[in-house]
């Protein structure tokens, strides 16, 4: 009968609400761990930007009645691309439901779908953290852990910004290898394993997504969560209706039955990015022995037209000297990446480098 709400309608609505509500609860838990106070809503097409800061302090010894010189602060934005809306789908056949029942074929696959979407955001965030520009190498886990925190505190002190809580990221196997038989309680929340108030860090995230031999650190107030609202009216005008939950609409979900092939289809859209306000407020410290290359090494571009110049050794932490022909390049002319450097402009001559890497 037309106009009657049927059981199928109610079941679908409850399923959609449960999916987005559980996703939101997981992120609320993660926000508590990371210390993110307020997710930031962005419109589609917004550029993701981090900043690098420098300040040249002029002398305070100014003669009487003379003009006081201004200290020049430079805040350089680094754009990484747009916030993209990810589109995801899942389909369950009638045969699967008949064989395994709805609790397995639908509910469990929904749960796995939700977990994978959350993992996608975290995986991207870990990869982004590895681009932090405060680099160093230490011979032990404990020394690397301490230096990662020290580099961050030193950087923000020079920026005249307060740092209260620092979150650090380590490989779960590195952490357990160091902890050994220590009586340490590992917390679990929102799918994250972490330690609280450990060696000066407010939280230490233990993850297999962080490569072994690396310790990463940043202040919790340097981490932002950007998102695109799936309930945006522009999407609705296309006839796309998604269920959302809470005050912060991080994900949209819609399930529907498809009679043409007897499947139950589920769709999710998500535009979320965990980001850092200051890229030079992230430290990456390698566990190993820092070794200097004392003889200039000639390096060539990774490919034609590329500005990426890989060195003979990976885990580069500092550049002693970099030349374009006979011209010495400064730190403003390049960016250090794990396996070499990325030049800001194409060189005019042979590029040679002396650098320090972690063996």
What is the strand and helix layout of this fold?
Layout (H helix, E strand, L loop, with lengths): L6 H28 L5 E2 L5 E10 L15 E11 L3 E8 H7 L1 H28 L4 E5 L2 H18 L7 E6 H8 L7 E3 L2 E7 L2 E7 L6 E6 L3 E6 L4 H4 L14 E8 L4 E14 L6 E5 L2 E3 L4 E3 L8 E3 L5 E9 L2 E2 L5 E4 L2 E4 L7 E8 L1
Parallel strand pairs: 1-11, 5-14, 6-9
Antiparallel strand pairs: 2-3, 4-13, 6-10, 7-8, 8-9, 10-14, 11-13, 12-13, 15-22, 16-22, 17-21, 18-19, 18-22, 20-21
Structural overview:
By secondary structure, this protein is α+β, with helices and mostly antiparallel strands. It has 2 domains: 12-54 and 82-288; 289-358, no CATH class. The chain has 6 helices and 22 strands. It has helices spanning 7-34, 94-100, 102-129, 141-158, 172-179, 233-236; strands at 40-41, 47-56, 72-82, 86-93, 134-138, 166-171, 187-189, 192-198, 201-207, 214-219, 223-228, 251-258, 263-276, 283-287, 290-292, 297-299, 308-310, 316-324, 327-328, 334-337, 340-343, 351-358. The longest helix has 28 residues, at 7-34. The radius of gyration is 25 Å and the shape is globular. Residues 4-10 have low confidence and may be disordered.
Q: Kindly report the oligomeric state of this protein.
A: single chain
SSE string:
HEEEEHHEHEHEEEEEHEEEEEEEEEEE
Largest sheet at a glance?
7 strands, mixed
Helix amount = 25-40%
Q: Tell me what portion of residues adopts beta-strand conformation.
A: 35-45%
Radius of gyration: 25 Å
Instruction: Give me the count of strands.
Output: 22
Report the structural category: alpha+beta
Number of discrete domains? 2
The pLDDT mean sits at 86
Number of helices: 6
N→C terminal distance: 74 Å
Strands side by side in the biggest sheet: 5-14-10-6-9-8-7
Q: Point out poorly predicted stretches.
A: 4-10
Shape: globular
């Amino acid at each position: 009968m037309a106009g009657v709400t049927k059981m199928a309608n109610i079941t679908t609505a409850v399923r959609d609400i449960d999916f987005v509500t559980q996703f939101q609860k997981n992120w609320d838990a993660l926000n508590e761990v990371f210390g993110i106070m307020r997710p930031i809503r962005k419109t589609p097409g917004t550029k993701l930007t981090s900043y690098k800061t420098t300040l040249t302090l002029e002398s305070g010894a100014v003669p009487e009645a003379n003009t006081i010189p201004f200290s020049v602060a430079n805040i350089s934005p680094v754009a990484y691309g747009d916030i993209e809306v990810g589109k995801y789908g899942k389909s369950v056949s009638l045969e699967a439901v008949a064989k395994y029942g709805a609790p397995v074929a639908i509910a469990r696959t929904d749960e796995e779908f939700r977990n994978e979407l959350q993992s996608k955001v975290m995986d991207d965030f870990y990869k982004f953290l590895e681009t932090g520009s405060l680099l160093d190498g230490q011979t032990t886990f404990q020394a690397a852990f301490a230096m990662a925190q020290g580099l961050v505190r030193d950087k923000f002190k020079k920026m005249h910004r307060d740092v209260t809580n620092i979150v650090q990221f380590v490989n779960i196997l590195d952490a357990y290898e160091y902890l050994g038989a220590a009586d340490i309680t590992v917390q679990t929340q929102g799918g994250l394993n972490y330690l609280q108030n450990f060696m000066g860090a407010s939280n230490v995230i233990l993850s297999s997504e962080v490569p072994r031999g690396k310790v990463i650190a940043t202040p919790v107030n340097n981490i932002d969560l950007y998102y695109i609202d799936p309930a945006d009216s522009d999407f609705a005008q296309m006839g796309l209706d998604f269920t959302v939950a809470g005050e912060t609409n991080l994900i949209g979900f819609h399930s529907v039955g498809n009679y043409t092939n007897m499947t139950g289809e589920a769709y999710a859209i998500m535009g979320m990015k965990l980001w850092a306000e200051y890229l030079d407020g992230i430290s990456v410290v390698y566990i190993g022995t820092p070794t200097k290359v004392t003889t200039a090494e000639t390096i060539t571009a990774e490919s034609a037209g590329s500005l990426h110049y890989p060195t003979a050794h990976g885990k580069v932490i500092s550049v002693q000297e970099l030349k374009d022909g006979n011209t010495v390049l400064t730190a403003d002319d390049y960016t250090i990446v794990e396996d070499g450097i990325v030049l800001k402009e194409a060189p005019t001559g042979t590029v040679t480098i002396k650098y320090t890497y972690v063996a």
